[in-house]
């Protein structure tokens, strides 16, 4: 098994767009030929668009884009730019008089990072598509990762910077990869060594606190728990799978979140993972699903390690070894 770049998948183009001053952005995955996809939502506070299309009983067998975005529900407007871009190129579901692009989207909450009045909009969504054509995708504090932070159990003041990350592997003809914007309530760990990489800080902001242990200090119900969270991402594979099978793969990929983020899937998160088939390689569903969890865990690690300090939040590289 060898590592490959997330951009080495056929039939998909990935691009970022962001407003660095405002601290928000979006990342688009374009499937101009249309491709089957599935979705599994585990968090308690998702913001999404066209997610019903991905249910097995829905008529649509293919989608044309996935948009990962900041801006919370306001960021849903960015999908309009993706639709415009695809419509201009005659890409979409043929309804006779025109073609309607099928664009799925998930948003994360980054309004507390930069200027909350600026969110991903139609122009930014369109810009991300242009960048996807240029093939300039990169990890870090860019795209949907621009406003990402982690370790927010005690509020933004004690959290750390995160970003968007990716990781992919190839074994034989089969490719499996993950891309993820990590904006979690919990702490982030190296899934292999168990070392904490980023998360909740103490009052001096020099040492880590353990978010799970802090959570266990009181069992009294908390109303309006800090909700500026959500980890959103996608699994890419050139394995040939149906929409129903891809929904299961997306669910298995959530195991990667559980390996790398603790706590995870809380009511204050909106964790959502897509799975997309962009090829025709015959592969075992359980093998690919298990591998999907692994590449997702590694992509989460890289999302944290590729992020530098920004907007007043320290990054993993700032912590004492």
Automatic annotation (TrEMBL):
A Pfam match is Peptidase_S58
Going by the entry's taxonomy, the superkingdom of the source organism is recorded as: Bacteria
A GO molecular function for this record? aminopeptidase activity
User: By its UniProt entry, which CDD domains does this protein fall under?
Assistant: nylC_like
Q: Which InterPro entries match?
A: ArgJ-like_dom_sf, Peptidase_S58_DmpA
What SUPFAM superfamilies does the record tag this protein with?
Answer: DmpA/ArgJ-like
Concerning its family, UniProt says: Belongs to the peptidase S58 family.
Q: What is this protein called?
A: P1 family peptidase
Identify the species of origin. Candidatus Copromonas faecavium
């Amino acid at each position: 098994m060898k590592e490959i770049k997330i951009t080495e998948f056929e039939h998909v183009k990935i691009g970022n767009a962001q407003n660095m001053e405002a601290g928000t952005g979006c990342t688009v995955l374009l499937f101009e030929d249309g491709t089957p996809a599935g979705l599994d939502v585990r968090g308690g506070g998702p913001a999404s668009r066209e997610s019903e299309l991905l249910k097995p009983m829905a008529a649509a067998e293919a989608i044309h884009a996935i948009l990962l975005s900041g801006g919370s529900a306001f960021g849903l407007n960015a999908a309009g730019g993706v639709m415009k871009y695809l419509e201009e190129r005659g890409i979409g579901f043929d309804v006779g008089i025109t073609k309607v692009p099928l664009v799925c989207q998930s948003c994360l909450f980054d309004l507390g990072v930069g200027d909350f009045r600026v969110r991903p909009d139609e122009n930014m969504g369109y810009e991300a598509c242009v960048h996807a054509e240029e093939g300039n995708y990169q990890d870090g504090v860019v795209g949907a990762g621009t406003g990402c932070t982690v370790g927010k159990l005690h509020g933004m003041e004690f959290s750390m910077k995160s970003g968007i990350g990716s990781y992919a592997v190839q074994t034989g003809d089969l490719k499996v990869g993950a891309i993820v914007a990590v904006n979690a309530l919990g702490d982030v760990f190296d899934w292999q060594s168990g070392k904490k990489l980023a998360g909740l800080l103490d009052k001096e902001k020099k040492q880590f606190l353990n978010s799970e242990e802090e959570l266990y200090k009181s069992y009294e119900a908390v109303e309006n728990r800090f909700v500026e969270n959500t980890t959103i991402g996608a699994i890419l594979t050139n394995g040939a799978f149906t929409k129903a099978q891809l929904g299961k793969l997306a669910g298995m990929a959530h195991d990667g979140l559980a390996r790398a983020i603790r706590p995870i899937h809380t009511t204050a998160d909106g964790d959502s993972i897509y799975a997309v088939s962009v090829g025709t390689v015959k592969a075992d569903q359980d093998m690919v699903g298990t591998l999907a969890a692994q590449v997702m865990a590694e992509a989460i690690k890289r999302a944290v390690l590729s992020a530098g300090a920004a907007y007043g939040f320290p990054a993993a590289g700032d912590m004492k070894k």
